[in-house]
Design brief:
Elements (H helix, E strand, L loop, with lengths): L11 E5 L11 E3 H9 L5 H8 L7 E7 L2 H12 L3 E6 L4 E5 L4 H7 L1 E2 L22 E2 L2 H7 L4 H10 L6 E7 L2
Parallel strand pairs: 1-2, 1-8, 6-7
Antiparallel strand pairs: 3-8, 4-5
Length: 174
Amino acid sequence: MPGAPEYTPYSIYMLEPHADYVTAENGYIPIEAIAERVYGKPYSSLRGCQRDDERIGNDSMKLYKLTSDEDYLEALGDLDDAEMYLGWDSRTGESVVKTGVTQLDYWLSIRIADENTPATVEANPPATQDLESAVFEDRFFADRAFSPSLRLILADLIRRGELPRGDYLFRHWW
């Protein structure tokens, strides 16, 4: 049919936070299972999604476009050049940032207390407290204190060869 628009087909990968209910065969990628296998710790999918866009509410979805070289390299650049915002210091009247550590490094450094390692921070630490290498009493407080950008996690997993380059649709409903 002359004059009809041409469409370029491309794949969208569905990231599923409920890893127990998905398989590779049904087209979903269990992001928590991949993150746990690669990084050795679970990924708090809800907080990660909301950190990327605070306006995203429950029962929502977000598309992460990492198909083009530009999108992918920009995400890797953001990962490598990240400054960690630690909050507002009311004593000095300034924002507190940390350089030389990425969101991913920061997240991976956080641990949960066990019989051999006591907690080093309280449940609700001040917004300006540096939490790198912090040991929390339990997973709930650690996830609430900090979780990195899902977009940057995806870029790192692609760089490591764990995920294909593509567009990722992330859904959650709580």
